[in-house]
Amino acid sequence: MLDSEFEAMGRSIPNATILDKYLVASIYKAVRLTNAINTLCDSGITDEALPILRSLIEHTINMCWITNKDTSARLRQYINDLGTGAFGK
Fold first, then answer.
1. Which has the higher per-residue pLDDT, 18 or 56?
2. Considering the domain boundaries, does residue 7 fall inside one?
3. 89: pLDDT strictly greater than 60
4. Fewest CB within 10 angstroms: 5, 49, 52, 53, which?
5. Average pLDDT over the chain, rounded to whole?
6. Whole-number Å distance between alpha carbons of 2 and 34
7. Is 89 within a domain?
8. Closest CA to 19 of 76, 65, 69, 61
9. Residue 39 sits in which domain range?
10. Looking at residue 44, what is its pLDDT?
């Protein structure tokens, strides 16, 4: 369902800023992680869903931190940290 919505949108946003791209990608990732958790839980293998749940929580915290204040600076820092291997330091 989510993929069809992105296909209808054309998988692009005209004149998108880096923040627009980050938010779309982040929401897409959050939905995909949630779908994976639901699939595992529906299959009765809930223990295997726990690492994915942790990833979803960390991802959500990052999104909240970036969008809370100083969004441009925080987004630049987040992207730089991912690119330099210094993430988590």
1. 56
2. yes
3. no
4. 5
5. 85
6. 12
7. no
8. 76
9. 2-84
10. 96
Total domains in the fold of the chain: 1
**CA torsion, points 26, 29, 34, 37, in degrees to nearest 10?**
-140
Residue 17 lies in a domain: yes
The residue whose two tokens read 């989510």 is 2
Residue type for position 59: H
Distance CA(2)–CA(25), nearest Å, equals 12
Give residue 11's pLDDT.
63
Average pLDDT over residues 45-56: 96
**Which pLDDT value is given to residue 85?**
58
CA gap 14, 31 in Å, rounded: 23
